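Appendix B. Raw example, untouched.
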Amino acid sequence: MSTTEREASAGARRSYAVLGAWLTLGVLCADASRAATADAGGEPQGAPTPLVLPGVVVVGTTPLLGIGTPLAQVPANVQTVRAQDIETQHRETLTDFFAANLPGVSVEDAQGNPFQMNLSYRGFTASPVLGTPQGLSVFLDGVRVNEPFGDVVNWDLIPSGAIDKIQLIPGSNPVYGLNTLGGAIAITTKNGRTSPGGSVDLSGGSWGRKSAQFEQGGVFGPHFDYYANANVTNDNGWADHNASRVRQAFGKLRYTDDDTTLSISGGGADNSLYGSQTIPRSFLDNPKQAYTFPDLNRNSVGYLTLSGEHFFTDNVELSGNAYYRHLRNENTSSNNNANYGSIDENGNVDTLEGSNVDSVVTTERFGASLQLTLLGKLGSIGSQLVAGVAADFANSHYVSSSQNASFTSDRATVGIGNFSQQTDAKTRNVNYGLYLNETLTLTPQWTLTLSGRYDWSSARIGDESGMQPLLDGYHTFSRFNPAVGLNWNPLPALTIYAAYNEGMRAPTAIELACADPAAPCSLPNNFVADPALQAVVSKTFEAGARGHPGAATTWSAAAFSTTLSNDIEFVSAAGSTQGYFQNVGKTRRQGIELAGHTVWGPVGIGLNYSYVNATYRSTWTEHSPANSSADANGVVTVRPGDHVPGIPTHAVKLRLDYAATAKWSIGTNITWRSGVYAQGDENNQDINGKIAGYVLVDLDTRYRITKRLEIYANVTNLFDRRYASFGVLGQNFFNGPGHTFDGANPVNEQFVGPGAPRGFWVGLHYAWD
């Protein structure tokens, strides 16, 4: 058998069930081929090009390699992003692309660095900041990249140039495991067969940003292919102290034959990211300045993944993976002393201005998953059964140290004396999962999906210093989470669905080690004790519809409601600058997503709107002395109906593409999002009110000089709007002349994370076969 015949045979086996299920629904349509943004219902949409018959849009029902399910049978508003979508807009970061294009997605700049954004989807967060309540799971080639220590997501470690496809799966889908409260992001990387040839991309522009990327893929012999990608970025930053240095590399080697695919992939990153933090509103005369500095986050990672799938017959497939991941994160932060001027029991006045804190987290992770897919019939009903097991293990070592410091006139910290160790702790996380997913084709028009997963999780925390014995503890959490969905396809171009699903998030070591009201801590710098917290449980209802009334038009509409029980918040302690994590009862995120895309001649139009109403559903109190509505003890009461801070209620996103000529194309993103409440204003009563909403306009253009050479340019924030995406209430200790330290007279203010001003970049992209 020739190589071509062998590949065709293997492809036929792998798509057998997908094509059969698709054709039983009678779905045969045309679509615009290349996409500039993710489409309304997850199918690719694109810049104006000749119409072609589309491939079957397949959604991964689990993070692992597998047959997948046709989109028409998926009871969720899945969104799909392809490599061409990302490459067309040439945005600096993956989170920036999501925020400008995908319904329900927004970002918060809490750190003052573009590579360290908090990403929110339907009011649930995937953040690189330790201590932030996480609600989204992120997978890279089937491996969950939420780091076990804090469940954080380091977006700067994901090799964006190597991405082939991203699927955003909404809801509490239990098959995606722990922490999938509001959704999962499944990222698949390129390979040498689907991405042959190579390219070099060079760009530069505002704020001294320079970037170079290389990729190469290909096939050798009848069975092997390879892919490699490397990226280097240096950025001085738009603010005074938020430079970035990013180094990423990724590679993959695969073996394929008629029935089997085996791959080994690996990568690494070594990044240094400075942040300018949030600043008080009184500093906005110069939004480029930092409150204090330096603040530096160093991330280095190395990872290796083995994965494969094998078809025993056309109806039986076994897939799995095994991985190893090593992460080292070091964070150096400058802080003012909130206790300045206080008097201790001996009558001594605290005159220390600030401190430098250095914390290091080293984590080793490994695990494996195995999954069996069976195709067949239950009587006259078509069946696709997926059964899987997963095991993940992680060992983390956390060390933090503190150094006394004073401030210079420009608010840089100057260390006084040596660093003294505050915490030395080790943690061990163990997670086991067992899941089933059954898709039943009841009739050509009706599909029933039944899913469930049992998760068992443990966290062991141990004090290594001998000075904090209360840190020692062992916690276990377990739960079975079910899901059910129903799809109706009355017409080939119309899908209507409804679903219910549940998920669980186990408290992280960060939260467990700081959950005692009698022993608060200033995370992520100091752990004290680890009393028990309850696991967070999510319950999601979703209903929606999607369709493609014409060859060049797609649309989708979805309504959802997710209620969390035992939600976890970081609560400030009374009379202290520290705090602790606690369960605060119920919270709810509910809303709608509307999206559509069409191509009209040389013009492509994509428009989406999202409404997210995120509220507390229980009464609880917190110490928030910077909140103007606080009582004499600095306490505010949060009541049912109060809005969760940081989540915009409304967002509208418009993407326009215009093919001016066969070689020249122009695109624009227009994004509007409504205002948000600041953290610390959980009762929504602070006198400062909301952080204002904003509108951003970005432009991109490409011109193909030759078949292989392309020049492109980008402008972000075209009208140079001043805006902020994040806010928190706090005390400003720099009220002296020129914003110098005046710790005796702190002022309660709203601190905000200013957005970047207008930026302009140009680049060259050269490709070869």
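End of appendix B.
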